């Protein structure tokens, strides 16, 4: 069966929603099968992704509400009603972007095998890489107990950020070595993984790209004049600006109260025996409310600081100190891992061609960094696993 998968054939299990098996070859008495797209089911898969991403590129509803929405529209999973678990499986299955994996689990122990032991089987794609990556980013942002992605632990400076900029291509850029590791490039994944040469191939020297991105951050983004333009609203000191901030604080506090109420009701439902404390959907809902409450606290603290005493406000001196401190960390040759963390904190995408780089990043990251007490130490987003894994004071739901 491993050899069959390595040869690109399907190994007998029921294919995911959107696909069906067909006989690709006959060898003696054996029918070698592959999978192809079922148009009617593929339309449902595309609708699931589109409905989750929403018109503005942000999740318009959670997975639970999305499953309910699909059922209300009369859609089904091969005659079965959609559940949050089924929707989550569809949204995270790499098969839909043309990469199906075999040998992912040990059948004897039912444990997941290391990814390097998985066997990739090329299948027709239903969803674009861009849409799939966008969905994964939303899911990741909503999951407080996530395991760091491979791009997070990779030593490559721009892992997970690079995009192919050639016309008609939306592939990610991945590391490629040449001459036994003597040369390193960012290469279009569509060419390497999917053998799709629509973009004509796109290899750019890794060191040159890394240096250019750091230089852009150092000389353009972290220029105090540029920062003032980007954060003009933050620096606004007029009475009208303060009045608006105070109104926004009232609105945000009301939202925070609503989040607190929702969390309290979930705990009351558990105590009353109306909800199973081990229910996965319950844990997701609780995590979502807690994440929203934490985000509201950050926004409230920022606005209160800007409305507070003159000494607490962000000003041009604070911006200059922040820029100088971050420049020093970005150019530190002795700590490449720290440099990567700072780059990943402020850059969301680097579109690459052989002639041009386009660096993009959210202003919100700058606002959060600048408003952190101690402007010379910008916050670095990272992930930790197994932190207080045996509970201690990190409270968990109990039966």
Q: Would you mind describing this structure in some detail?
A:
The chain is of the alpha+beta class and 399 residues long. It folds into three domains: 132 residues, Hect, E3 ligase catalytic domain fold (Alpha-Beta Complex), CATH 3.90.1750.20; 129 residues, no CATH class; 75 residues. It contains 15 helices and twelve strands. The strands form five sheets. A three-stranded mixed beta sheet has the order 7-11-12, covered by helices on one side. A three-stranded antiparallel beta sheet has the order 8-9-10. Strands 1-2 form a two-stranded antiparallel sheet. The radius of gyration is 25 Å and the shape is globular.
Can I get a quick summary?
This protein is an alpha+beta fold and 399 residues long.
Keywords:
399 residues; alpha+beta; Hect, E3 ligase catalytic domain fold; 3 domains; three-stranded mixed beta sheet; three-stranded antiparallel beta sheet; 12 strands; 14% strand
Total tally of structural domains: 3
Report the oligomer. Answer: single chain
**So, CATH architecture of the largest domain?**
Alpha-Beta Complex
Intertermini distance: 42 Å
Mean pLDDT: 77
**Radius of gyration, in angstroms, nearest whole number:** 25 Å
> What's the helix count?
15
The top-level CATH class of the largest domain is Alpha Beta
CATH superfamily of the largest domain: Putative Large Serine Recombinase, Chain B, Domain 2
Question: Biggest sheet: strands, sense, closure?
Answer: 3 strands, mixed
Strand order of the largest sheet: 7-11-12
- List the uncertain runs: 373-380
Structural class: alpha+beta
The percent range for strand residues is 5-15%
Order of helices and strands: HEEHHHEEEEHHEEEHEHHHHHHHEEH
Number of strands: 12
The CATH topology name of the largest domain reads Hect, E3 ligase catalytic domain fold
Fraction of residues in H or I helices: 40-55%
- What is the overall shape? globular
